[in-house]
Amino acid sequence: MARKNATIYDIAKLAKTSTATVSRVLSNSGYPVKEELRQRVLEAAKKLNYTPNLLGRQLKTKETRDIAVIIPNISNPFYPSIVLGVEDAAREKGYNVLLCDSYRNPQLEIAYLNSMAKKQVRGIIISSISQNQRFLKELVSRGFNIVAFDQNVTFPCNRISFDYVKGGFLATEHLIKLGHKKIAFISAPLTRASRKGVFEGYLKALKHYKLDVNKELILINDKEQEINNEIYEYENGIELVKRFLKIKDMPTAIFAVNDMTAIGVIQGLKSFGVKVPDDVSVVGFDNIFISEMIEPPLTTIEQPKYEMGKLAATLLIDRLQNEGDKKYIEINMSPTLIIRKSTKPL
Amino acid sequence: MARKNATIYDIAKLAKTSTATVSRVLSNSGYPVKEELRQRVLEAAKKLNYTPNLLGRQLKTKETRDIAVIIPNISNPFYPSIVLGVEDAAREKGYNVLLCDSYRNPQLEIAYLNSMAKKQVRGIIISSISQNQRFLKELVSRGFNIVAFDQNVTFPCNRISFDYVKGGFLATEHLIKLGHKKIAFISAPLTRASRKGVFEGYLKALKHYKLDVNKELILINDKEQEINNEIYEYENGIELVKRFLKIKDMPTAIFAVNDMTAIGVIQGLKSFGVKVPDDVSVVGFDNIFISEMIEPPLTTIEQPKYEMGKLAATLLIDRLQNEGDKKYIEINMSPTLIIRKSTKPL
DNA sequence: GTGAAAGCGCTAACAC
DNA sequence: GTGTTAGCGCTTTCAC
């Protein structure tokens, strides 16, 4: 990127020594070099404004210091914290991170995976889409260092998982303990592991507390999410509220599959003059930071996003030490209930 | 990352040809190779499950396909769209992007800059902090390919700029045209070019429409933002509302320096029973996506974030063609007023 | 302690 | 059209 970079060869010449020695001092190899010579090298490097070219080193050592993170879309408010966690952990270990937005597009995702392989990244953290399971699996079996999260992978693999079912259970249980008996579930289509898990938790809680599962209260849109529309979940919430309001003997609570949906739900409710939480309690899922900035602040399930990102990167980089190791590690993260103002006793 | 990757040498052996030929067909050099041989090479490559090692090529050609984007914090809702724009443009041109969060920390920012240089990235898109102007300037003068945005740089440099003053003017003008005469300005300290510009626009509009500049209405916190607290602006909005409410003969409108602050302002106002927009009109700045999801949806100034990111990357990569070119390019983006429900005629 | 030299995987003269 | 070969910038044996 700069003009004509100085190389260790230039430094060697200037310091009247060999490239071997220069390399030894400049790469902090710990290899013994006489202090006086070392100083000469350092000075020469400074004089020449030397910037090491990592490409040379990496080609030789076959070890880059890059990892990639592949996510659906960084402008979905769920992902920035994760990516930040990844980056922080990576930086601590001297790694850089390549950002890849897949837009949930199978071809794009595969293209990125291939591209990252060519770049010799040391590993990949990925929230993949289910269609690519076979491809991913093959990569893993070929020895690629991969950590999956935010999805269900059907094959052995390092992963950071999250207990969606328990989260769904906690949310529903909270409403039940508040005295609610008719609790609606509002969601986009259950096309993802996360949504399925949350729904399962909802059912489980109802069963556990011996409440009827009423099909009428399960409002799941069958229209699939448009690609690249971060606002879809929100609009979906608004839309399904209309169906909700048509239910005779209106439920007193709503559990939305995620915060974006819940925010839409609250907005929709308000627009029809229905008060939250006075008329209807609402709980969300994810605890994206917006949820405490809306009115009323949203009761929701915390998913430790930053920590998950950090753990994913830490796990990934730690695995590098024992490359051949066939044992895969799974770290399971737990949900917590965050009670704010959108729910209240019946 | 995989075990023992096949190299062009292996392919040459298998296809009974030379590495030169293999390279020619595999790198799509356009160099003529007989069809039959080409097929043999392709087959061999496939059979060996060949993945090119970009490090080799890049070391040879001295051209990586990487760019870096350095921003304060990806979890600040202002940046994801920008980064997405950068990535999309980069991908279209065959580039990958390295993400660097500087946390507005001068040392970290410089460390990243250095680190990226070592990695031989082709260029850097940066929202820098003012303390590092000298360092940045030197990089630029050393021939580094840099595009700055979201800041005021005091030296010649490629940049994507945004007319904050005009934005501030538009927002204030909107309020004035609605009949408001007492318009408060609420902001975090004017330590950044953007905030300064917005404030200047506010003053300019008042002057232009011959309204008094009343110091009492200018509510600027002097507490500096805590590092790494994306919620600070929001809380700042809430806090300053208290001062706002103490103003005798309360103003009928508030212009907040950005959306996060505005959302805090609205929240604060509500908590004191003040209605928006019935009692007080509020306008924000930035048009982050949350602003249309709050109640009432926020009137604000649109900053074309995605486009700015995309343009920055396009500009950066285009500049690569004429490396030596000393002419720097500045692209100025214009604000637009987005009228929603948080403002109304007096 | 130090240096000569090989070589990581690739491209690009250059020769044929 | 094809092959030989030098070399990108670096690390690392190996010999001294």
From TrEMBL, chains A, B:
PANTHER family registered for this protein in UniProt: HTH-TYPE TRANSCRIPTIONAL REGULATOR GALS, LACI-RELATED TRANSCRIPTIONAL REPRESSOR
Task: Provide the GO MF annotations for this entry.
Answer: DNA-binding transcription factor activity; transcription cis-regulatory region binding
- The protein here is known as LacI family transcriptional regulator
Q: Which domain of life is it from?
A: Bacteria
Where is each HTH lacI-type domain found? Answer: 6-61
Record's PROSITE patterns? HTH_LACI_2
**Which keywords does this chain's UniProt record carry?**
DNA-binding, Transcription, Transcription regulation
Entries under InterPro entries matching the protein: HTH_LacI, LacI/GalR-like_sensor, Lambda_DNA-bd_dom_sf, Peripla_BP_I
Q: Carries keyword Zinc?
A: no
Which Pfam families does this one have?
A: LacI (PF00356), Peripla_BP_3 (PF13377)
> What is the phylogenetic placement of the source species in the record?
Bacteria, Bacillati, Bacillota, Clostridia, Thermosediminibacterales
